[in-house]
Design goal:
Layout (H helix, E strand, L loop, with lengths): L10 H4 L7 E6 L14 H16 L3 E6 L7 H6 L4 H25 L4 E5 L8 E2 L2 H9 L3 E5 L9 H12 L3 E6 L4 E2 L11 E2 L1 E2 L1 H6 L7 H9 L4 E5 L5 H6 L6 E3 L1
Parallel strand pairs: 1-2, 1-6, 2-5, 3-4, 3-5, 6-10, 9-11
Antiparallel strand pairs: 7-8, 10-11
């Protein structure tokens, strides 16, 4: 008996409509949290995992850097008197919790994943090795980078820029809870203006807070574009990798 025909298009065909074939998605920890609190909302996690699997099914090689603001934010601990390096290490460990939760959600719906940690913890994650990460991507696995850069004093935004450059990503997709970059906080300033595009220098000169200056500078030095978009609108990740004009592009 001949095997049943595959319902999945060949990789070359699946990638035909993609603007970006290898991307790095930056997810905040807050994206996983319930509306009014900390921790992880299973329903939110499942919804995000479903979108990520759909993007991966298009043939897009997908890597993720995840934050930890839903559990612990190092800079907040430092502001309350904690020694900064210790607070940052605690934040890095919190990103591992989020990474494992996202891995579980993805694998429960059939997406192959690997968690790579910048801090060695062999029982639960692979160590971050650049060539290993790119090989996982080539094999169709969703790669989740945990523990930031492995160093204190660097944000997960900077980790996203670093990992994106290292793996040869074509774009950083910065998922937020607003539909782009504004000249003021749109939640408190009704007259705030949204930018459709910005240069790296404009972003830095305006002191915009969507990403930190170290992350933006690294992207600028490596000509790596950033798309800032609203994660809460279903399908936006797919639209972004397809090249639809959503949110704000920094380039």
């Amino acid at each position: 008996m001949s095997p049943a025909p595959s319902t999945t298009a060949p990789a070359s065909q699946r990638r035909a409509d993609l603007r970006y074939s290898r991307v790095l998605l930056k997810l905040s920890g807050e994206a996983l949290a319930p509306r009014n609190g900390y921790g992880i909302d299973p329903d939110v996690l499942h919804a995000i995992a479903g979108e990520l699997k759909e993007v991966r099914s298009l043939g897009c090689e997908l890597a993720i850097v995840i934050g930890a603001g839903n559990i612990f934010r190092g800079i907040a601990g430092s502001a309350r008197g904690m020694e900064r390096a210790s607070a940052d290490y605690m934040g890095m460990l919190a990103t591992v919790i989020n990474a494992l939760a996202l891995q579980d959600a993805l694998e429960r719906i059939g997406a192959m994943t690997r968690v790579l940690s910048a801090i060695s913890m062999q029982q639960i994650a692979e160590p971050y090795i650049r060539r290993r990460a790119t090989r996982h991507l080539e094999k169709g696995r969703v790669v989740i980078f945990a523990a930031g850069t492995g160093n204190p004093f660097f944000t997960t935004d900077t980790a996203a820029s670093l990992r994106a450059v290292e793996i040869g990503a074509q774009v950083i997709l910065k998922a937020t809870n607003v539909d782009g970059v504004y000249d003021a906080d749109p939640k408190t300033h009704k007259e705030a203006k949204r930018f459709e595009e910005l240069s790296y220098i404009e972003f830095l000169n305006r002191h915009l807070k969507v990403m930190d200056s170290t992350a933006i500078t690294m992207c600028m030095d490596n000509a790596l574009p950033i798309i800032v978009f609203d994660l809460n609108t279903r399908g936006n990740i797919k639209r972004a990798v397809g090249g639809e004009p959503i949110g704000t592009i920094v380039h």
